[in-house]
Amino acid sequence: MPRILVVDDAKELLHLIERYLTEKGFSVLTSTTADGALKILRREKIDLVLTDIILPDREGIDLITEISKVYPKVKTVVMTGGGAVGSSTYLETARLMGVDGTLKKPFALGVLVRLMEKILL
Known about the structure:
By secondary structure, the chain is of the alpha/beta class. The chain has helices at 11-23, 34-43, 60-70, 87-96, 109-120; strands spanning 3-7, 27-31, 48-52, 75-80, 101-104.
């Protein structure tokens, strides 16, 4: 069973994704901060991190940079609704950094699952 770490400070969305992925057979851990996500990565085997780009303690770009350096086997998917810069800029930056997938919010949960299955299988 793939282990997914979902990182988003929007708690309602975080719990919605957690419930849906759990129903689809994934083992899911969650964090509302990048630092919390890194603590989980230190102690748990994680196959894929799904992270928002805009987080309260540091940017998701910083988080995926650290993941790629310290945990190179962990797959990464970033999601964003935009912010002041706009979602296209954030997602393009993430693609250039080599993330495994990107999602623009809002997205259908079925699209998320298909993307994760494609990346993990």
